[in-house]
Design brief:
This protein is α+β, with helices and mostly antiparallel strands. The chain is built from six helices and eight strands; from the N terminus they run ααααββββββαββα. A hairpin with a 3-residue loop joins strand 2 and strand 3. The termini are far apart.
Length: about 280
């Protein structure tokens, strides 16, 4: 038992001597490396904040500004880490080789994620749309709420948040109608009605809608000569977040105005002639 205790004490003393020798030989280098890392952290943060403020002053896209600031912060801090390692006498060549190998494996594993980031960077730089625009891509329509490097968030009138990976946006046919969505409607009037009179009434209805103030001018005209009616085509712009609300309100106002003006909205009719046999 005493021999085992002596062995453990001797081993502990050996470790103690190693630790003391390390701190005696490398204490100043270690303190210098820690000091370099601390200074590097504050310098990187200061430079990053300066870059971010500069981008905001130049009114650059906020997502791009934050991305650039983050990249600069990482680069500056990495430089200080390299200096700190050299202060300790550690060669960084093996680390670079290891990082390269890991980067290759990680790149193959996260191809989809990298594709999203690449597409997001493309969106931020090319700016095919910005926050507040209405876009349609792959059958999805919504108002752009947030643009991130990996994905874009849309919202609609129902307050549904739609998250689209950026790789499904870049390379696709993209419709951007800015903050509005086009409403297309058709109303039929009797052939006995002067179509210009009906168009004038509809124009007055649209001009009186507060939801359409400041929007692009509507288009109203004869869309089709149908079997039972003259179809009046109506095209106007409504806010994307109030699309259905505006459409329902305008439809009701048009119906009321036509009714008050004595204009019939005919239903489909068919004349049937009976021919008696033998006549």
């Amino acid at each position: 038992m005493e021999d085992e205790i002596k062995k453990e004490l001797a081993q502990a003393a050996k470790y103690y001597d190693i630790i003391v020798e390390f701190f005696v030989n490398y204490s100043f280098s270690l303190l210098g490396a820690i000091l370099i890392l601390v200074v590097g952290y504050f310098v990187a943060r200061k430079v990053s904040n300066s870059i971010l403020h500069l981008c905001k002053r130049k009114e650059l896209d906020i997502t791009l500004s934050r991305f650039v600031a983050s990249v600069v912060k990482i680069i500056v801090f990495t430089m200080f880490v390299i200096i700190a390692l050299s202060k300790l006498g550690i060669s960084i060549t093996p680390f670079i080789a290891a990082v390269g190998a890991l980067s290759l494996g990680a790149g193959l594993a996260v191809q989809g994620l990298l594709a999203n980031y690449g597409a997001g960077l493309n969106i931020i730089i090319a700016r095919p749309f910005v926050v507040g625009d209405t876009i349609q891509v792959q059958g999805i329509v919504g108002l752009v709420e947030e643009v991130h490097l990996a994905f874009t968030i849309l919202t609609n009138e129902d307050q549904v948040r739609i998250t689209i990976p950026n790789k499904h946006i870049i390379g696709e046919i993209l419709h951007n109608s800015f903050a509005d969505t086009l409403v297309e409607a058709v109303v039929g009037v009797s052939y006995a009605t002067d179509p210009q009179y009906a168009i004038t009434i509809i124009e007055k209805v649209l001009a009186g809608q507060k939801e359409l103030e400041g929007k692009r001018a509507p288009l109203i005209g004869i869309d089709e000569f149908a079997d039972s009616a003259i179809n009046i085509g109506i095209r106007y712009w409504a806010s994307t977040v109030r699309y259905h609300e505006t459409r329902y309100s305008v439809n009701l106002a048009i119906h009321t105005a036509l009714k008050e003006a004595g204009i019939d909205i005919p239903f489909p009719q068919r004349d049937v002639h009976l021919i008696q046999a033998g006549t």
